[in-house]
Structure formats: structure tokens, C-alpha cells
């Protein structure tokens, strides 16, 4: 196996010069770069990337927090991030928190111990005060989720506007008895704001909401099945239901079909995100521009890593779009 000394001998240069070329040091002539590159190719010499990263005090690795990778929204988000990171010479580590505060805190050690150059948070379960001390170890960027306390770059959509848009569409279609199906409504800012937007749309239209029409802790297709079962057993049932994800909406729709209900005649359903599943099930949904969210977040993260300066609050707020289909 060839060594850096063999490369230096083959190129007719000093070991120091070869090291400078390998580590992309400035002030090395193009001719010397050519000689070293040629020698490396002829000797099949591959530099030790771990050693290079150690010398540069960079891992070229970024950690991405996701609550549940099986959710198509987050898997799509991570896929686009990975492609964008690769273009810039970075790789990703996926940290699945499962909406657990302790798991979220444990992953912060990756930044503290210099195993990653930065963190991208797509969900937040803890108070921002838990993250604040770790900013001294590297940059943190927030996307999808957001916090007023976070003085860091953030890419997100105003979820109050998103849920208002979807709920108003149901109201405009003539529905006055509207259920609401959501995930973590207590700690997630996204869920809290969606509920605010939903209730605001009802209030603006003078529509009353019953407590039994709220269905909480729904994240998956299976949770959609369970939500429909509860909904169908109510004495006074809603005519329509707003959901926080296309997965949940698809579960409700499938359960409704299996029960012999007609959608939207017996129950109108609206999803959120515009995942491929929504198109497959012909579900009306509120679209979030996942590709743009992912690219913007990754660009902000790479900028922060390369700048090596204290982070400042920077907000990138993106628009929603209502995608109308047959379920409403």
C-alpha cells in the first residue's frame, strides 16, 4: 500500500508539499498540484479522510433530527437534504427522536463531542433553553418546526395560515360541523399553531366547535383508522375533518370506505403536506414545499459551518398552497 512518502518520491516533491496539496492548502502552484495528483493516481494512493478532517477540525457530517422517519414528509425532507449536502461535500447522520425529549437531548452530545459539524432540527420537543448551551459547539438550524426563542436560522411556514387555509376551504364548501385530528398538540409549536389557525377560521365564520370533535396523538395511517372509529361512534358526528398529515387523512379515508361511507358526501377529509399518498387517494391537502424547505435549510447550515461565526436569527418563511381534490 502506497504512503504519502511514496507519492512525494514519485512526484519529485517534498512530503510537506504533498500534504499541502492533499489538504487543499493555498499558495501551491498548479504544476505541483498536477504532479501530486498524477503520482497519487499512478500509485492508487487514497488520502486518509478521517485524518484530514481531524486536522481541519471538521467532520464534514451534519446531524438531522427527525421525529419519525417512516412519515413520508420527513423521509422526503431528508432525501432532498442528503442530495443537497452531497453537492457541497457533506454527509448526513439521521437522528430519530420518536418525539421523545430525552432522545432529543441525548443526540445533542454529537455536537458537543465534535462528531458532527452542525445540527438541523425538523422537530423540537424540548424548550429552546435545552439547545442554547450547545450553540458554543457548533451551528444549529431549525426547519419545519420553529421557536420564538431560537436566535438561529430558521426555515418554516406559518402554520396558523396553513390550517386557516385548509379549514376555510371546508367552510367555503358548506361544512359547519368540522372535526380536527392532530399529533402532539402540547409541546409542538407546529401543532399548537395549526390548532390556533383552525379555531380562528371557525370563529371568523361564526361556527361552534365541540370538544369531542378533537382527535389527538394521530401521526400514522393506523392512527387515522383509530380516529375514524372514534368519530363514527359519536352521536353527533362531524361532517368533515381537518387532519395534520396526509397519512392520517388517508387512514381516515380508507376506514370510511371500508365502513361503506361516501367521501365527501358522508365525510369530507382534508390532509396536510401533499405527499404522494394524497394524490393516490385523491385527497384535498395543504401543500408544504418540502424540496424548498430542505434545500434552504441545508444551504443555511453549510453557510454557518463555513462562516465559523456566531449564529444570528434569520427567518425564511415559505408559502402554502391548497391542493383541491375529490375528498372535499
Task: Outline the structure in words.
- It holds the Pfam family Peripla_BP_3.
- GO terms for molecular function: DNA binding.
- By secondary structure, the protein is α/β, with parallel strands linked by helices.
- It folds into three domains: 4-47, lambda repressor-like DNA-binding domains (434 Repressor (Amino-terminal Domain), Orthogonal Bundle); 59-157 and 290-319, Response regulator (Rossmann fold, 3-Layer(aba) Sandwich); 159-287, 3-Layer(aba) Sandwich (Rossmann fold), CATH 3.40.50.
- It is 44% helix and 16% strand.
- The protein is built from 13 helices and twelve strands.
- Helix 1 (4-11) crosses helix 2 (15-22) and helix 5 (72-87) crosses helix 13.
- The model has no long low-confidence stretch (mean pLDDT 92).
- Quote the beta fraction: 15-25%
List the strand order in the largest sheet: 2-1-3-4-5-11
Q: Cα distance, first to last residue?
A: 66 Å
Structural class: alpha/beta
* Basic shape: elongated
CATH topology value of the largest domain? Rossmann fold
Q: What is the CATH architecture descriptor of the largest domain?
A: 3-Layer(aba) Sandwich
Give the helix proportion (percent range): 40-55%
Low-pLDDT segments, ≥5 res: none
CATH superfamily of the largest domain: Response regulator
Order of helices and strands: HHHHEHEHHEEEHEHEHEHEHEHEE
**What is the overall pLDDT average?**
92
Amino acid at each position: 500500500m502506497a504512503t504519502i512518502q511514496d507519492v512525494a518520491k514519485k512526484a519529485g516533491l517534498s512530503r510537506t508539499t504533498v500534504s499541502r496539496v492533499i489538504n487543499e492548502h493555498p499558495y501551491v502552484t498548479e504544476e505541483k498540484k498536477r504532479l501530486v495528483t498524477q503520482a497519487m493516481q499512478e500509485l492508487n494512493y487514497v488520502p486518509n479522510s478521517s485524518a484530514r478532517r481531524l486536522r481541519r477540525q471538521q467532520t464534514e457530517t451534519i446531524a438531522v433530527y427527525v421525529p419519525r422517519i417512516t412519515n413520508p414528509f420527513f423521509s422526503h425532507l431528508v432525501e432532498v437534504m442528503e442530495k443537497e449536502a452531497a453537492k457541497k461535500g457533506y454527509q448526513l447522520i439521521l437522528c430519530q427522536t420518536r418525539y421523545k425529549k430525552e432522545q432529543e437531548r441525548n443526540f445533542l452530545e454529537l455536537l458537543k463531542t465534535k462528531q458532527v459539524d452542525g445540527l438541523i432540527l425538523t422537530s423540537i420537543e424540548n424548550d429552546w433553553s435545552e439547545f442554547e448551551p450547545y450553540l458554543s459547539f457548533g451551528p444549529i438550524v431549525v426547519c419545519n418546526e420553529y421557536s420564538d426563542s431560537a436566535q438561529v436560522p430558521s426555515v418554516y411556514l406559518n402554520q396558523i395560515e396553513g390550517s386557516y387555509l385548509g379549514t376555510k376551504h371546508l367552510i367555503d364548501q358548506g361544512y359547519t360541523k368540522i372535526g380536527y385530528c392532530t399529533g402532539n398538540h402540547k409541546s409542538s409549536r407546529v401543532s399548537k399553531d395549526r390548532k390556533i389557525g383552525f379555531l380562528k377560521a371557525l370563529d371568523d365564520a361564526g361556527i361552534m366547535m365541540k370538544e369531542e370533535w378533537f382527535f389527538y396523538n394521530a401521526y400514522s395511517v393506523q392512527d387515522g383508522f383509530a380516529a375514524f372509529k372514534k368519530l363514527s361512534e359519536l352521536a353527533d358526528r362531524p361532517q368533515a375533518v381537518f387532519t395534520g398529515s396526509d397519512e392520517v387523512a388517508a387512514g381516515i379515508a380508507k376506514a370510511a370506505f371500508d365502513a361503506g361511507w361516501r367521501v365527501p358526501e358522508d365525510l369530507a377529509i382534508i390532509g396536510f403536506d401533499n405527499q404522494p399518498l394524497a394524490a393516490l387517494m385523491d385527497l384535498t391537502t395543504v401543500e408544504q414545499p418540502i424540496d424548498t424547505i430542505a434545500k434552504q435549510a441545508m444551504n443555511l447550515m453549510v453557510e454557518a459551518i463555513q462562516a465559523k461565526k456566531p449564529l444570528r436569527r434569520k427567518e425564511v418563511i415559505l408559502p402554502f398552497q391548497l391542493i383541491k381534490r375529490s375528498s372535499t
